[in-house]
Design a protein that fits this description.
4-stranded antiparallel β-sheet, globular, membrane
Length: 409
């Protein structure tokens, strides 16, 4: 469970460590284990009265070494550890990595697998934004949105479970396609979910968008101008809330996104309220993409026919010794990737998620390096918090939506 799911909107004196105190100026340490810090984050705040003069984030308390772990696994095994970086969007992690490896291999992916990837990662975007909206509501004392948002997210996790066999870390995308074909009832369960979705989303919007307390606690705080957001390296909703219409799906299309009709919402004021509203608009756009992907889902195989990376069909393994040996070698040793390097970016729920992969021609990645959007969001906090009231700190961090699994990767 994320720390923000337990977040409180106030800070008591005993919750923080006072590092220094001189007349009206005080330096305090919040975290690294505190409900208001959204994960294992320490913030050193310099206060003048109740105004934050300076903020310094510190992270790395739960460093997982995921990138280095991936370099000691085969190309396919590495998918499972990358799943766990942004644990609210594991399919986006899957997608960025397999696209990078497929570039190095020059493997062609079947159309059905491409469209299924688009559909599932857009559902993943909706699920991630719903966690943001639900827990963000808790941060300002609104409990009902949490239950509405998580009820809607459960429907998506049910689809993931039916499709991939797992709710949280599916590792479903494979180099060359999908781990297994979509289930026969996939179309029906997704359509059933989409049918009730607009009404439920409207109920959630009604609870937040016109709530006077929510408006008071989010409007005009944590403001970033477009110039500041660009200079801080922000991408995704945090950048678009400041009025910059940059979206990797439009700027550098992948997975055939250029064939889908959708808009890129942008904000006007760059404050916490815009970051909330923009994610609601993005849910509506993702809903449109999911509908288009479902309506146009091609028939055909879910995995490339390239035997260099694809396991032979089960029927063939039962009758062919060569196929059985090939199956054994692929599973036990993996496949080799030609020497080279590649950078692949995708638009994850939190922004530009990119994977830099280097191969030395072996059966394991020589180097895996990730550009996680949450890392940039955390380092934008000093600018967002400067001049803010201490009571607004929780809301400002919540609106930045960092996931520390990918910060401390």
């Amino acid at each position: 469970m994320r720390g923000d799911e337990l977040a409180m909107s106030t800070l008591d004196r005993e919750d923080v460590e006072v590092l220094d105190e001189k007349q009206d100026r005080m330096t305090i340490s919040v975290g690294p284990h505190h409900p208001s810090t959204h994960g294992v984050l320490r913030l050193v705040l310099e206060l003048e009265g109740e105004t934050i003069v300076k903020a310094q984030p510190e992270h790395g308390f739960l460093h997982t070494g995921i990138e280095k772990s991936a370099e000691n696994l085969t190309w396919t095994q590495a998918i499972t550890v990358l799943d766990r970086m942004d644990y609210l969007s594991p399919l986006s992690n899957n997608l960025g990595y397999v696209l990078a490896v497929e570039k190095l291999l020059g493997v062609e992916v079947p159309p059905k697998a491409v469209w299924a990837r688009v559909l599932l990662t857009e559902l993943q975007r909706i699920a991630s934004h719903l966690v943001f909206l639900g827990t963000g509501g808790l941060d300002v004392g609104a409990q009902s949105p949490y239950f509405y948002a998580f009820d809607m997210r459960e429907g998506i996790l049910d689809i993931f479970e039916e499709t991939t066999g797992a709710r949280m870390n599916p590792s479903y995308f494979r180099v060359g396609g999908l781990a297994k074909d979509l289930p026969e009832h996939f179309d029906r369960i997704v359509r059933d979910y989409l049918k009730k979705f607009p009404g439920r989303l409207q109920e959630l919007k009604d609870l937040l968008e016109e709530n006077p307390i929510f408006l008071d606690r989010t409007k005009g705080i944590g403001v970033l101008t477009a110039e500041q957001a660009i200079a801080l390296g922000l991408t995704g909703p945090n950048l678009r809330a400041s009025g910059v219409a940059y979206d990797v799906r439009k700027a550098f299309p992948y997975c055939g996104y250029e064939n889908f009709q959708f808009d890129v919402p942008v904000g006007k004021n760059g404050d916490a309220y815009d970051r909330f509203v923009l994610r609601i608009r993005e849910i509506e756009e993702s809903y449109k993409i999911v509908q288009q992907a479902l309506d146009g889902m091609p028939e055909g195989p879910h995995m490339t026919s390239n035997r260099k990376v694809a396991l032979p069909p089960k029927e063939e393994v039962r009758h062919s010794m060569e196929a059985l040996i090939h199956h054994f070698k692929l599973v036990s040793e993996g496949f080799k990737v030609p020497a080279g390097e590649v950078y692949q970016a995708i638009e994850s729920p939190r922004g530009e998620f990119a994977v830099y992969v280097v191969s030395d021609g072996g059966n394991k990645p020589w180097r895996v390096r990730v550009r996680p959007p949450s890392f940039y969001a955390v380092h934008a906090l000093p600018t967002m918090l400067q001049g803010a009231m201490l009571a607004d700190m929780v809301m400002i961090i919540a609106a930045a939506d960092p996931v520390f699994g990918e910060v401390d990767r």
